[in-house]
Design brief:
Length: about 200
Amino acid sequence: MLKLCVLVSGRGSNLQAMIDAIEAGKLDAVIALVVSDVPGALALERAGKHDIPTLVVDHRKFKNKDDYEKEILAAVKKAKVDLICLAGYMRIVGSVLLMAFRGKMINIHPSLLPSFPGLHGQKQALDHGVKVSGATVHFVDEGCDTGPIIIQAAVPVLEHDSEEALSERILEEEHRLYVQAIDLIAGGRIRLEGRVVRILSA
């Protein structure tokens, strides 16, 4: 069974989608640890309701990113985690975590990467007038939303869409897509060839 650590900063709706899928028997995984860089994040409350261990690591209390990530890494190793999932985690991952979990750390982003990386992908899509946006699950690398793409889902951009309305429709796909990506990894169906991710047949 795949052991997950979920890194969060906010409300944790993707975390909740993982919890729901696991509890429904749709995902052969267990969330061993939830780590937040923000004290009081709603995601911590969601985890607590399901008796999932949580940890707050406030980056402001460390002199540099390496020390901050070493604290997280120690907890992750203690929990014997197989895969780190970023779910609304609002920090760029540094070398300490990358070196330890390269190819074993994934993120979800609200756009069809490589278009519109970084913050406010939904607003970027609207500002550029694209007709289709969506969500992407990708491996984490040194860049901002630049890692190898695992799976994507398209979401139409409607006439007179607001950022809020588009974000909500993309979020629905995120919840489905993230669980699907984790399920593929849990089933050993992902093979990374350079920058290309191959999905193997069941």
